[in-house]
Amino acid sequence: MTESAAVHAQRVVVAAALIESGHLLAARRSAPADLAGFWELPGGKIEPGESPTQAVTRELREELGVEAHALHRIPGEHRLTKNMVLRAWRVCLRQGDPQPLQDHDRLRWLSFHDLYEVPWLPQDLSFVEWVSGELRREEACTQ
Ligand SMILES: Nc1nc2c([nH]c(=O)n2[C@H]2C[C@H](O)[C@@H](COP(=O)(O)OP(=O)(O)OP(=O)(O)O)O2)c(=O)[nH]1
């Protein structure tokens, strides 16, 4: 890779929309100071050699102590910085009960009705909006 290509290489942050029984898992960030207290979809940066879905699985193992599987990407993306972009995946839980082991100090399972009760990071809102549509459809099917 040329020097200028390396400077412009894009780092991807993967975020997981973990949905179970009509609820989305939201995580409250504990650091850094400017993000602490805001809620997000758990995840992190893709490591060299990893696919996005492998990164989702690794991050959820590290941060929440669960085994999870990325099903498909959620449309859209958010540019975080010149070299970093946020993308999200719809994820299902395979094993375990999520715990805030790393980067977060609280977790909540949110239903369609309380999805916006927490202060989301603004950059996550388009993904939360997509999830809202999914949860509304799921709820309609179970009535
Ligand atoms: N994981 C995650 N990060 C988000 C979201 N929204 C958002 O702006 N970010 C930002 C916060 C951070 O600047 C960056 C991801 O950093 P991170 O600290 O979670 O990444 P990481 O687990 O790989 O940790 P590290 O390499 O920085 O130690 O993306 C989101 O929904 N999930």
UniProtKB/TrEMBL annotation:
Highest taxon of the lineage: Bacteria
A Pfam short name: NUDIX
Family indicated by similarity: Belongs to the Nudix hydrolase family.
Gene3D superfamilies, A to Z: Nucleoside Triphosphate Pyrophosphohydrolase
Regions that span the bilayer: none
Cofactor(s) listed: Mg(2+)
Substrates-to-products reaction catalysed: 8-oxo-dGTP + H2O = 8-oxo-dGMP + diphosphate + H(+)
Keyword DNA damage: yes
PROSITE patterns reported for this sequence: NUDIX, NUDIX_BOX
GO molecular function, one term: 8-oxo-GDP phosphatase activity
Protein name: 8-oxo-dGTP diphosphatase
Example of a GO biological process term: DNA repair
Keywords: DNA damage, DNA repair, DNA replication, Hydrolase, Magnesium, Metal-binding, Mutator protein
Positions of the Nudix hydrolase domain: 9-133
